[in-house]
Specification:
7 strands; five-stranded mixed beta barrel; single chain; globular; alpha+beta
């Protein structure tokens, strides 16, 4: 009987330890993703990118995506704004602006402002960090999905401008 009691106590302690330590392993969501976030929850290929401060690396990733005509390509980077465009108010509303690499390639950001806040006071020359899905086009490409996915089926994207996160 003594062995049975000891076994039951040991098992109970084991279950308690698993319960306690199992919850410690779970990460709590953060308010903002790290600057060089690599997103894995998407149907798009995941791209491991350098920190957004490395503009040359962002230039290289976008050049590769454009040359290879990639689409559904999850990408993170940081580039300056070269042009502000009027909002697209047909269907889902999008804030639109152009980012430009140091080599001259441009990419359109189409940021859904029905699902995420618009970037206030955005100016030409400002740097914008981004995480979204690249789609090839002959003009240099489009990055969209720069917001959370309310249905949870797509990688969450985001934009960062002057320290504020827009997702």
């Amino acid at each position: 009987m003594d062995i049975l009691k000891k076994s039951l106590i040991a098992a109970a302690i084991g279950f308690i330890a698993i319960g306690v330590f199992g919850t410690l392993d779970r990460a709590t969501p953060t308010a903002s993703p790290p600057p060089a976030a690599t997103v894995a929850r998407t149907h798009a290929p995941t791209v491991t990118t350098p920190p957004p401060a490395a503009a040359d690396a962002t230039d290289a990733l976008l050049a590769q995506a454009f040359q290879q005509r990639l689409s559904n390509y999850q990408i993170t980077g940081s580039l300056p704004v070269s042009r502000l465009l009027p909002d697209d108010n047909n269907g889902s509303r999008h804030q639109k602006f152009i980012l430009q690499t140091s080599t001259g390639q441009t990419v359109l950001i189409a940021h859904n402002i029905d699902l995420a806040p618009r970037i206030a006071n955005l100016q030409v020359g400002d740097t914008v960090e981004f995480c979204g899905e690249y789609e090839w086009n002959e003009k240099g490409g489009v990055i969209h999905w720069t917001h959370h996915d309310p249905a949870g089926r797509h990688a969450h994207g985001w934009l960062r401008h002057k320290g504020s996160l827009y997702q």
